[in-house]
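Researcher: Checking consistency across runs. Here is Nucleolar complex protein 3 homolog again:
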Amino acid sequence: MKARRNKKQVPSFRKLIRTSKVKLENKLKNKQFKQQSTLKKYRKEQRKLRQAVRDAVSKKPVPLEDPKGKRPGKRIERDEEEEEEALPLDMMDEDDLQLMKDLGQRASFLTRDLSSSEPAHVKKRKHESIIEKYEKTPRTLPSAPEKELIHLLPIKDKSGIIPQTREKPVIDSSKEEEDQEDETGQEEEMIQDPIPELTIEEHLRERTKKLQEKKMHIAALAAAILSDPESNIKKLKELRSMLVEQDPDVAVTVRKLVVISLMELFKDITPSYKIRPLTEAEKSTKIRKETQKLREFEEGLVSQYKFYLENLEQMVKDWKQRKLKKSNVVSLKAYKGLAEVAVKSLCELLVALPHFNFHNNIIVLIVPLMNDMSKSISDMCCEAVKKLFKQDKLGQASLGVIKVISGFVKGRNYDVRPEMLKTFLCLRIKEVEVKKDTEDINKPKRFMTFKEKRKTLSRMQRKWKKAEEKLERELREAEASESTERRLRLHTETLNIVFVTYFRILKKAQRSPLLPAVLEGLAKFAHLINVEFFDDILVVLHTLIESGDLSYRESLHCVQTAFHILSGQGDVLNIDPMKFYTHLYKTLFKLHAGATNSGVEIVLQCLDVMLTKRRKQVSQQRALAFIKRLSTLALHVLPNASIGILATNRVLMHTFPKTDLLLDNESQGSGVFLPELDEPEYCNAQNTALWELHALRRHYHPIVKIFAAHLIAGAPSEGSQALKPDLSRRTAAELFETYCMAAMTFNPPVESFNSKRKDKDLQGDSFLNEDLNELIKRHCGEAAAQFLPDFTKCWGTSR
């Protein structure tokens, strides 16, 4: 017969598509339920198996016979009990007995070998042999001491599951005591025999060896990063991990080397643009391998740079807090050295990477350190800020620093070091860029619209105009430099913050040590102040001078600021600065060759603004009085100050030609010169002469001699008494700096005398005539013969 064909057909694809979604979900649920039920059954079987193993192991075997023949009575009683228990089976009916036999033949939980892992309904019963083996095993006597067993995992083989046990080892108390004694004895031996300590030489040799290994490792990592930064960017992390060196012998030195190495690496491998985070759209787009590699490099660089800055900040905080860490690797004394290296690295990064990420974070770290109690750290930070101001062409970085400094000064209630405000003097702001207001700045060129072209231009002109505008747009896009508009806007905002800081100090803290720095800053940027504030500022400056609380240098800065204001936009104002002229004329004699000699430079700058640049507002009497007083001042200052003062007199004599009457002894007009009068207009300086020039002509400094002789001759531009170009082309302030004697040496050096000529000059006979020499010798010889003492007479009388 043919096999019966299965009529059930496989459903087609279309039929499967027509199957409802609910039916498919039900099928899936049924399938999951079956799997769960099967898993539950399996877990239940395993749980029963483990319970059976535990019962079989814990069951105590009963001895079959007593080897010593004792306790026969109990054995007889047990046999009688068994007979009594077996009686009900004989009294059962045949049907019940047959039923019990049938049940006994089935594999139920009563007759199943629980130590086996085979299923319950199995035809071949292998458990019978296992029971027989178990019955044949010898029983232990109850009198034997029970030992504690440790149950192990059972072993499964073909015959079934074999339980595994192990006796728990019994440790004698005597052995424990012996072991403890042995351990204490070993500890005593260890204490008695310590590890031999290294000598100082061996310790230094070992330290040098470790340090050399660390240096080679740092050099290898740095060289690999520099050779291929994009591929080896992960080695930056390895190098940065050495910042937590734990070896106390070389920890401090290695950390310093790693800080400097990382700083130089970041300066070399950092790109010249700021790296911004990627957007979600940019991350999801597909890119080339080269672009992906570049992105990974940039992300790794930014993250490592951030962690590096955090490490530097932590070093500075550890030094500030002065608390030892748990590791105790670095001592408290070494914290300052690490902090100085960290601050130096931050300053280098502030100057070298003003365009890169986290520059504002570095500024926030550096500015408070400018006011630090440690002079070395404070000076280091101030110098870095000055260098940043000098090299910042655009003004973006300078504006950020100025904002933080202004907020810091205000937050500390103006109780800061003056060096912080002196950094403002290094701002790179040109007069032509900030002189105009923002409204007067030329607006960018606007291209003509189509309607305007159609009205004013012909068809050919419109065509040419279109090409010209296209070319201009391309040139603008190709131009790399920033626009003048943005630079002027940044400079204007920077100056506004600077002036706000200055005016706050002038208003609220006039007796603050910051006042000299404020006055010096106002003297430099006064020509950039708005005209509306001129009257108020001049009143404040005059009040400060008249109060008498200012030092000589501060009062000079007030005078300099006032005339800078008046020399710029203040020309249009009708203000008489006679009180400032009088103050300067009165305080000139406070200068001398001692501590105030450095103030001569400010005086020279004030004279240039007050007399030379304002020549039209200066009278002849005022010019004569200043020339006379300056000539007198040149007698009791250092040589470089004398040269600067004489150079100023030369310029004034050229600016005011009629002042040459001071070179004549004859008086002009009525009256007598009053040198003690403090009013330059009424001291009658025209009735005196510059006799000081003749004293300066015999000065020991050669340049002072040259200038004095030049002025006595009337300061000619040509002739034998004219100055050389290297002296005539320099300003008074430049000459003052050139011939400075701060190094305590003569400038120019003094010529050395010839030694041979000196020996000849020391011979006294060469100065006398030959006849006179002979007469002196003969006279000396005759006198010696006449007055020769006779000692023989004395010898005879003594006998």
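Researcher: Does this match what you'd expect to see?
Model: One thing to look at in this run: The first helix runs from residue 13 to 18.
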